[in-house]
Amino acid sequence: MEKPQQDGRHRREGISLLMRRIVTRNRLAIPSTIVLVAIVLIAVFAPWVAPYDPYSQDIMKRLESPSNEHLMGNDDLGRDVLSRLIFGARNSLIVGFAGAILGTIMGVVIGLTSGYIGGRMDHWLMRIVDVMMSFPGMLLAILIVAVMGPGLVNLIVALAIWNTPGFARIVRGNVLSIKEQEFVEASRAVGSNRLRIMYRHILPNTVSPIIVHTTLSVATALLTAAGMSFLGLGVQPPTPEWGAMIGVGRHHIRDAPHIVTFPGLAIFVTVLAINFVGDALRDALDPRLTE
Predict the structure, then answer these.
(1) Rounded to an integer, what distance in angstroms lies between the CA atom of residue 213 and that of residue 223?
(2) Phi and psi, residue 193, nearest 5°
(3) Where are the domains of the chain?
(4) CB neighbours of residue 78 within 10 Å
(5) For residue range 266-285, what is the model confidence (pLDDT) as tens digits?
(6) Looking at residue 78, what DSSP letter applies?
(7) Contacts (Cβ under 8 Å, ≥6 apart) of 151
(8) Which helix (H) or strand (E) segment is 26 a member of?
(9) Could you report the per-residue pLDDT of 26-72, keeping only the tens digit for each?
(10) Is 74 helix (H, G, I), strand (E, B) or coil?
């Protein structure tokens, strides 16, 4: 009974130490986390938070400036900008998080397989990764969406494929240094198969860089998704999404700047909060930094 209690105590102490590192090394970590959690909660409870139906049109109030009735004004079709911004957070966050997480999963599988098995498998997988990394990120995403067609799901797939090479390189580099260590040799000696060694012994020791890179990739994916939707290759109207809202509102930027200002600010604040959280995690998980 003592060993599970000790393990639980060590785990709690480790979490407490990690939180202290996050707070002391990056003063913006806690405020950024609060802002990010608030945005996520607003997106989740959008039907209860939004004051109006995001699809409801009132042509008589089109391009109306912010007022007491419509705090962020109306767009070119008389729809409430605040309501569309709140519902748009759902699609923007889904695309950003799903694209980064799927890219992480595919990159981890490729990096683990390539780094541990080596040989021809490593050679051909890395050549494919090299080809993918030779394309500029946005251009690769545009190419994939152009082939598959615009839409939310296809945009997520494009972002996942785009994120995969970076994760594969990071994981492979860590695997190459870990697989020769004594605990891996001991696992081989007792007869563990490749899958068990990769996913039970090597993968847990590469979690820290994966977490940090995933966090920062969410911000990049969100920005890329907004850019794709702005170009008409992402989420399609009338579905609310921050990049698509800016794309539609750019035609009225002179006479109704609020249409693009508020979605732009939403993207700015969200990406900034994610980057600060990612920086804090990097500082806390970096073993090269001392107390």
Answers:
(1) 16
(2) -80, 175
(3) 47-277
(4) 16
(5) 999 999 999 888 877 776 66
(6) S
(7) 234, 235, 236
(8) none
(9) 677 788 889 999 999 999 999 999 999 999 898 888 888 898 888 89
(10) strand
User: Cβ distance 30 to 268 under 8 Å?
Assistant: no
For the chain, what's the residue count?
A: 291
The residue assigned the tokens 């981890």 is 108
Residue ranges, the chain, pLDDT below 50: 1-15, 289-291
What residues form DSSP beta bridges with 74? 80
pLDDT at 7: 43
CA atoms within 13 A on the CB side of 268: 7
Q: Supply angle C-alpha 283, 285, 291, rounded to 5.
A: 70
For tokens 């090269």, the residue is: 288
Tokens encoding 187: 């696992």
Global pTM reads 0.83
What is the CATH topology of the domain spanning 47-277?
MetI-like fold (1.10.3720)
